[in-house]
Amino acid sequence: MPTLTALPEDRGLRLDAWLAKRLPELSRARLQALITQGCVTLQNRPVKASLKVVPGLTASVEIPPPQPATPQPEPIPLHIIYEDADIVVLDKPAGLVVHPAAGHASGTLVNALLHHCPDLQGIGGELRPGIAHRLDRDTSGLMVAAKNDAALTGLQAQFKAHQVRKVYLAIAAGQPDPPSGRIESLIGRSAQDRKKMSARPARGRSAVTHYETVRAYGDWSLLRVRIETGRTHQIRVHLSHLGHPVAGDPVYGRGPAVSLPAPAPRQMLHAAELAFTHPRTGKPLAFQAPLPPDMQRLLDALASSLPS
């Protein structure tokens, strides 16, 4: 674990720039990732990459051992809805990352699928074998994965052509007016925060979302949401843009300052329906997944809080 001390000529540098200067074998992007992961500390406390360096500052840098180049099979339980020789449809729990990425080299859906389907390795790329689409880590619900290249190609073509029907249930702040409607905008990176997406970007891709109110609960509503496109964070961005952010959303959750009668430990968003054509047989397939317990508990609490 290298320990570095800032010199007088380092004054005013950003922490990540100073570390890149002192540790040239590591890229600045790699150092920023280590800072985000808490591997860079001052007096055993995590810091931000934007911290300004002063002479005498001492930083400790923990460099984790290298991870395997390809995901490894892991015996992670899966809730499988349907499976045949070509595809597997599952109900992903909230909290499960879909594929390995920075900070999530293991413990992902891909690791689980590799254990469940040993022949999956190499289908569609080393890091995302069999993955035709994705859900955010804290969004629960239905996903389909391919078990061979032909199935993956067929599924990807349907997603690209917007031929897959994807319907979500969301608990959102307020009551939309009108109670049902269509949201269309560009979605792209936010100019203010590059980690966020925006419905008013300088550049972006077209996104279309349809919503309808299933039930109103005073200051909250249960919405049924169908997306024509599949942009990053699309539903969360569009509902926030509409003024009705998803309950428990830590990123896009601006909106009415109203409290919830029960905890929302994550964004209350669930992929409830998925319909597509089987990539080999051409048979129409449709699946449904019931609300997970955390969303059902919140709905029950909202119902109980309504006036008699």
Question: How many H/I helices?
Answer: 6
Q: CATH-wise, what's the superfamily of the largest domain?
A: Pseudouridine synthase
In sequence order, what are the helices and strands, one letter per element?
EHHEEEEEHEHEEEEEHEEH
Termini separation: 62 Å
Quote the beta fraction: 25-35%
Count of discrete domains: 3
What is the overall pLDDT average? 91
Task: Give structural notes.
The chain has 308 residues and is an alpha+beta fold. It folds into 3 domains: 3-61, Structural Genomics Hypothetical 15.5 Kd Protein In mrcA-pckA Intergenic Region, Chain A (Roll); 70-161, Pseudouridine synthase; 162-308, Pseudouridine synthase (2-Layer Sandwich). The protein is 19% helix and 28% strand. The strands form 2 sheets. Strands 5, 6, 7, 8, 9, 10, 11, 12, 13 and 14 form a 10-stranded mixed beta sheet that branches. It has a 4-stranded antiparallel beta sheet with strand order 1-4-2-3. Helix 1 crosses helix 2. The relative contact order is 0.12. The mean pLDDT is 91.
